[in-house]
Amino acid sequence: xxxxxxxxxxxxxxxxxxxxxxxxxxxxxxxxxxxxxxxxxxxxxxxxxxxxxxxxxxxxxxxxxxxxxxxxxxxxxxxxxxxxxxxxxxxxxxxxxxxxxxxxxxxxxxxxxxxxxxxxxxxxxxxxxxxxxxxxxxxxxxxxxxxxxxxxxxxxxxxxxxxxxxxxxxxxxxxxxxxxxxxxxxxxxxxxxxxxxxxxxxxxxxxxxxxxxxxxxxxxxxxxxxxxxxxxxxxxxxxxxxxxxxxxxxxxxxxxxxxxxxxxxxxxxxxxxxxxxxxxxxxxxxxxxxxxxxxxxxxxxxxxxxxxxxxxxxxxxxxxxxxxxxxxxxxxxxxxxxxxxxxxxxxxxxxxxxxxxxxxxxxxxxxxxxxxxxxxxxxxxxxxxxxxxxxxxxxxx
Length: 397
Ligand SMILES: *[C@@H]1O[C@H](CO)[C@@H](O)[C@H](O)[C@H]1NC(C)=O
Ligand SMILES: *[C@@H]1O[C@H](CO)[C@@H](O)[C@H](O)[C@H]1NC(C)=O
Ligand SMILES: *[C@@H]1O[C@H](CO)[C@@H](O)[C@H](O)[C@H]1NC(C)=O
Ligand SMILES: *[C@@H]1O[C@H](CO)[C@@H](O)[C@H](O)[C@H]1NC(C)=O
Ligand SMILES: *[C@@H]1O[C@H](CO)[C@@H](O)[C@H](O)[C@H]1NC(C)=O
Ligand SMILES: *[C@@H]1O[C@H](CO)[C@@H](O)[C@H](O)[C@H]1NC(C)=O
Ligand SMILES: *[C@@H]1O[C@H](CO)[C@@H](O)[C@H](O)[C@H]1NC(C)=O
Ligand SMILES: *[C@@H]1O[C@H](CO)[C@@H](O)[C@H](O)[C@H]1NC(C)=O
Ligand SMILES: *[C@@H]1O[C@H](CO)[C@@H](O)[C@H](O)[C@H]1NC(C)=O
Ligand SMILES: *[C@@H]1O[C@H](CO)[C@@H](O)[C@H](O)[C@H]1NC(C)=O
Ligand SMILES: *[C@@H]1O[C@H](CO)[C@@H](O)[C@H](O)[C@H]1NC(C)=O
Ligand SMILES: *[C@@H]1O[C@H](CO)[C@@H](O)[C@H](O)[C@H]1NC(C)=O
Known about the structure:
Its EC number is 3.1.1.-. The protein is of the alpha/beta class.
């Protein structure tokens, strides 16, 4: 199964999105070095291959010195021994193979002109090396091969490492993440809050993490089956929201944000495209659902989709908005930004987060909308009109 990798997606990004590579401010590019969590050993918190987990921390300054932003890295999942063994030898399963310096841009930028509300916070990028959105707790050993499924312990080890560095007396804090990291934000949001001072302002932001429990075009539950394999292999279920799992007949469904969401007590912001390219390619039209490859052109270039394909994509958008209806209506403490761009992850790339040509809804960029929500400057629940009405999109074609 191909769901476990988004490398194909990155390929598309770099081929067709040249402005990402030559992004403005290249000479001011902020690179932040890696911190290995030495104490993780005491908790048995290891990457798939047994290496130590890691994060990158850039210190806050000025008025932001007591504020903390933690951002989970994304990168798909692994759901069986083979895919996890492969991953354990790559930068998504081992800190040994990771770049030791990370570019901090978009929501991680330290420059107010690129990141108006969070630039002076302590900003942390949490590296992803467990393959289960930081939520597994198991181990595989059959005499020759050894794999650690310890995402939940990695999460705890990193929090415990950061608390004495200032997180423990934060005044404001936000847990965020993109893709598989955006899913981790749903899974760990309330746990994050529990570690912080009671009088701190704590909120969570998921970017491209609202993976929908949707059948594919062959009517199979491809994503549900994929997650079932992952949850079983990596021992995820005990770490899901207990209030959710005790309510649902199929507790493992609480891995899907739409079911866990009503049980999350911390203020939450959902940033997602209604035509999220990862979900389009892996949930709605996975390769198994399209053996004759009728969708190949449409997947690479939305202007090549025919009418019936566009209708199916519109149906996916409606289903996503339906899953978000209570969230949209019920609370004033939450926020959302559901735009109509063929894209995936919009908070870490400068061009989509906050730049002259950034995507907008009602003339508001993502950074402005998230900031308005966090600081309660305005109600921030934006839903874009359906494709193709939005002319501000950076479609991945
Ligand atoms: C890298 O980060 C560590 C903290 O983990 C810090 O002590 C060290 O000075 C940094 N090295 C460089 C070259 O910035
Ligand atoms: C922020 O970016 C602007 C535009 O590139 C630049 O002029 C300015 O010097 C930067 N400020 C800092 C503090 O790096
Ligand atoms: C252990 O698992 C790996 C991966 O599935 C397999 O290649 C290997 O043959 C297994 N070893 C034993 C002793 O079963
Ligand atoms: C948060 O998660 C850790 C494990 O990572 C667990 O030990 C702790 O009890 C959790 N806290 C709450 C309040 O659920
Ligand atoms: C590591 O753990 C030891 C013992 O639990 C503790 O004394 C020490 O402060 C910890 N170090 C860090 C960097 O968290
Ligand atoms: C929370 O309370 C502590 C102790 O009273 C205080 O030092 C801190 O400034 C307070 N934080 C906020 C955000 O009010
Ligand atoms: C998908 O569904 C079709 C029937 O709609 C079935 O024949 C096929 O085996 C299923 N494929 C997968 C990968 O589950
Ligand atoms: C479950 O809900 C109760 C009551 O709202 C709350 O006190 C508790 O923290 C929740 N537990 C979890 C794991 O979210
Ligand atoms: C939202 O409101 C609807 C009724 O309008 C209610 O059925 C639902 O339980 C509410 N959801 C939450 C999470 O409060
Ligand atoms: C996308 O498809 C349209 C219609 O088939 C075509 O005109 C256009 O050149 C394609 N764009 C790219 C970048 O391939
Ligand atoms: C949109 O916002 C920009 C500033 O972000 C402003 O200059 C422009 O006039 C606005 N356009 C409209 C149509 O309101
Ligand atoms: C608040 O949002 C509304 C609707 O998007 C907008 O018309 C208004 O100008 C905003 N107010 C401020 C102070 O930004």
